Amino acid sequence: MIHLITILYVALGGAIGAVLRFSTGLAIAQIATKPFPYGTMSVNLLGAFIIGILWSVFEHIPISDNLRLMLFTGVLGGFTTFSSFALESINLMKNGNMKLAIIYITITNVMGLILAFSGMSIAKKYFI
């Protein structure tokens, strides 16, 4: 059973992460001049780096479950879900599940692109 306090921790973290993502994207857009998604790429890569640091640190320094959820699911989830994807992929590899890691990475990337394109096509055909 999920307690209200747990939901509030995740919600607070998500709000912080979303604001950080928005702010980082704006800051990068101010300095980026080429038509390339530097903002999205930057938050995804930064999120992957941060989740790697935090995961390793909190393997050695205990924190409460609520704080863990706030940081990983909330803040980093609001900042980028790519960080979770990167961590899950690495953990599959570390646990000796290389085949599953490759399947997960491939399906997530290829199907993500296919589904995004499909969604855009459906929207253009039926709603726009």
Structure characterization notes:
This protein has helices at 4-31, 38-60, 65-79, 82-94, 98-126. With 128 residues, the protein is mainly alpha-helical. It has a domain at 4-80. It is globular. The model has no long low-confidence stretch (mean pLDDT 91).
Describe how the helices and strands are arranged:
Blueprint: H1 4-31, H2 38-60, H3 65-79, H4 82-94, H5 98-126
Query: Could you give the count of β-strands?
Result: 0
Radius of gyration: 17 Å
**What number is the mean pLDDT?**
91
Please describe the biggest sheet, giving its number of strands, its sense, and whether it closes into a barrel.
none
Order of helices and strands: HHHHH
Question: How far is the N terminus from the C terminus?
Answer: 42 Å
Task: Name the assembly state.
Answer: single chain
Q: Rough shape?
A: globular
